[in-house]
Amino acid sequence: MVVNRLRLTIFSIITTQLMPFKEALECMVGEYKVDGQCCPTCHPGYRVHETCSLMTGTTCVPCDPGTYTAHQSGLKDCLQCKVCDPAFGLVTRRECSPISNTVCGCSPGYFCTNMKDDDCEMCVAHRVCTPGQYVKSRGTERNNTICEKCQAGTFSPNGTLGQCLPWTNCTAQGLFEEKPGTDTMDTLCSMQGNPPLGFIGTPIIIIIIIIIVTFVITVISIIMIFVRRKKNRERG
């Protein structure tokens, strides 16, 4: 009984004395600290299956599909591969491998709002320029579209043009300006000045009447010719 107590006391003293050395232990490159000892790390693409002992080294096993380790480590579990979620405008640029994570990029028409190295965390749809604007700079995977307003004397009907179009100069073409241009619509020109509202359709109506009268006269003339010929035959 006394011997056992003595052994326990000696073990406690030794453990207490060694504790500072255990805490101050620093491992070399290629090792990791576990349970007060330094064990060899596992290579990229592997994880720790069993830690080392005084008699054996670290036992490493390959990462399961869908997981990875990019560096030498003492991880017992490989890291989960990232999924590029289409709901955030993401597409897969590079598939995950045992030694590298998935790399995501943006779908066409989207740009990245949170880029880390070459990997994108979230994408947003490019700005759409509206009528009256032109596309100063088209969007890329890293930058949004830049829109600018049309300057006076120019217009953009749909907002997709690389530059606004100048208004048509009606006078220079020998035409009359029927309606001035806006930032979304060109100047409207006509062959003649605007007539009074009550006479806008008069020329067309007159032309139609002339055509109808001419047609009626022609038909009547043809009928009369046939009638005369018929009477002449009967007399003869």
Automatic annotation (TrEMBL):
Transmembrane segments: 204-227
Major localisation: membrane
Protein name: Tumor necrosis factor receptor superfamily member 14-like isoform X3
Cystine pairs: C63-C78, C129-C147
Keyword Disulfide bond: yes
TNFR-Cys repeats: 62-104, 105-147
Pfam families: TNFR_c6
Signal peptide: 1-24
An example Gene Ontology CC term for this record: external side of plasma membrane
Boundaries of every TNFR-Cys domain copy: 62-104, 105-147
Keywords: Disulfide bond, Glycoprotein, Host-virus interaction, Membrane, Phosphoprotein, Receptor, Repeat, Signal, Transmembrane, Transmembrane helix
SUPFAM superfamilies the UniProt entry points to: TNF receptor-like
Protein topology in the membrane: Single-pass type I membrane protein
